[in-house]
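dumping this here before i forget
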Amino acid sequence: MRGRIDAVWSDLTPSERQVAEVVLERADDLAGFSGAELAEFSGASKATVSRFFRRLGFTSYAEARVDARSLRARGVPTGGLPDGSPGPVATHVAHDVKNLTRTAENLSATDLDGVVTTLAAARRVLVLGWRNSYPVALHLREQLLQARPDVSVAPLPGQTVAEEVAGLDARDLLVVVGFRRRTPAVPAVLELAAELGVPCVLLTDPAAGPPAAPVAHRLVVPVDGPGAFDSYAAVMTTVAVLAEGVLARRGSAGRHRVGEVAKAHDALAELES
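structure:
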């Protein structure tokens, strides 16, 4: 919105600039204002408000409100905690409980057992994630690596993923973590995996459209937060559920792996005693 206003600032009338100042000050709340309210806040007429948004390239103020709402739906950090909220901690905790409940319902309706079986049995597992999805991918890799060998994460800093994907086949598994504000790499790698015959697990959010290519399993986890930023509490719980399932599925082999990793930690003195 600021970029649009900057582009036409010199052409705005004094009354339109009054509207512009209010919009810039209250941009986070724009989706919740009516045209009459915005006119009242700025001291301009409703006709001036309509003319102002047409100058910005919108057909109407209603279209501008839709655009403002869609930004948050795409993961852009706009807005803040709602007025009258009981406080940041209580508000976030209450919202995360709702997301966890929705996640439990979603996971129970999916073939979670099939996902765990595939994660445990694959020859190699490659976990991919970009932007906010990368920490999730890294954490999933670290948890799985406790229970089984041959788990890698990409892209590494400064690296591309082609070298990691090349050589994978039907014996392996690709886990794509693709939460909102996805990069074009997400659909591209799903399409490539389908061409190579590599089974995929897609971990994503409810706002995502259909996968660019068929995937073996799709786990949908909500990440919407009560304020400007997304919450990944339910996502990390899902990672814990998957890793726990893989460890249990591998049985004695999984327990042996845990023991061997612990011995290596002791030998290298990498962790506090």
